[in-house]
Amino acid sequence: MPRNPSKTPCSHPGCRAWSVRGSDPPLCSTHAGRHLHPGPGKKLGAPAGNQNALTHGFYSDVVRDYAGEPVPSTGGVSLDDEIAIARVALRRILAMLLSGTTLGPVPRRLDTLDLARLGALAFQGTRTIARLLEVQASLGAEGGSDFAIAINNALDALSQEWGVDL
Fold it and tell me: How far apart are CA 19 and CA 3, in angstroms?
């Protein structure tokens, strides 16, 4: 019995979570579908112009080089940025393999299973970087920045061939 007697369990079969307040029938947040159907007049996600993902998002902790300095960015997400991120990740993995401990303020000794996993990740990271460098070479010397130029040139050629302004 909950300490708060007004709480009711989720009515979904087999679910042991507490229901969301005001849901009818009583369902937990997962089964209520609030994340799928926010209701009339409500939008999912952050408000327009929100920049929190740059500070707290997926790349916020990763986009720092081995010394902790931010990796220079070209403004948007480019192929050069992705290569830099993969290199930083690989350097961190190699540092852990060489030291035998995790990185961070409270290092932990790595066991045999951790070392095997990190070894496999090092090989995977090397393959990823090689693949990204191959893609960059196929796009041109500047990598992703030449991609827009190549697309524009292709559209211009098609425009002349078809006689249509693209």
Answer: 14
